[in-house]
Amino acid sequence: MRQLLYISTATPGAAIDISGILATSLRNNRRDGVTGLLWTDERRFLQALEGSEDAIQSALLRIKFDTRHRGIVVLQDRAIAIREFGAWEMARRGPADTADAFDGRMRQYLSGASPSVRGTFEGLIAARRAA
Ligand SMILES: Cc1cc2nc3c(=O)[nH]c(=O)nc-3n(C[C@H](O)[C@H](O)[C@H](O)COP(=O)(O)O)c2cc1C
């Protein structure tokens, strides 16, 4: 199984329909057996994807050609024996979310993730919060 972690930036001026990305991703990833986590503050995206080699390769190709984001940098790409994410989830802090509630949700999503994956998510979230 392959696990990939990348970061990207929302294309300035692009109308980002987060709900649309969520709906398409849930549909495709369930079909293809892809699990992982997409975090966004609507300016940056950080995504972990895991699944079969073929499923990750084709998801990455589709994602790379998506003009809604740019500057995709793969941070980690490795073989894994067992999944670290139980499902595919999207995390963004909604207006009704308290910081504590959001942190709790992230902790839950990342509870099975390896230290390097968890550290990358936590680092980016802290950096964006400080910006
Ligand atoms: C930040 C970001 C993350 C995305 N993540 C996924 C994903 O995990 N799975 C997926 O199938 N599409 C994802 N997409 C959407 C793809 O780029 C593409 O639009 C979609 O796969 C096309 O699916 P369709 O051919 O079924 O319409 C993502 C797009 C963006 C901008």
Automatic annotation (TrEMBL):
Q: Which InterPro entries match?
A: Acylphosphatase-like_dom_sf, BLUF_domain
Q: Which Pfam families match?
A: BLUF
Q: Which SUPFAM superfamilies match?
A: Acylphosphatase/BLUF domain-like
Mention one GO molecular function. Answer: blue light photoreceptor activity
Q: Report domain BLUF positions.
A: 1-91
- Give the protein's recorded name: Sensors of blue-light using FAD
- Report the source organism: Sphingomonas mucosissima
* High-level lineage: Bacteria, Pseudomonadati, Pseudomonadota, Alphaproteobacteria, Sphingomonadales
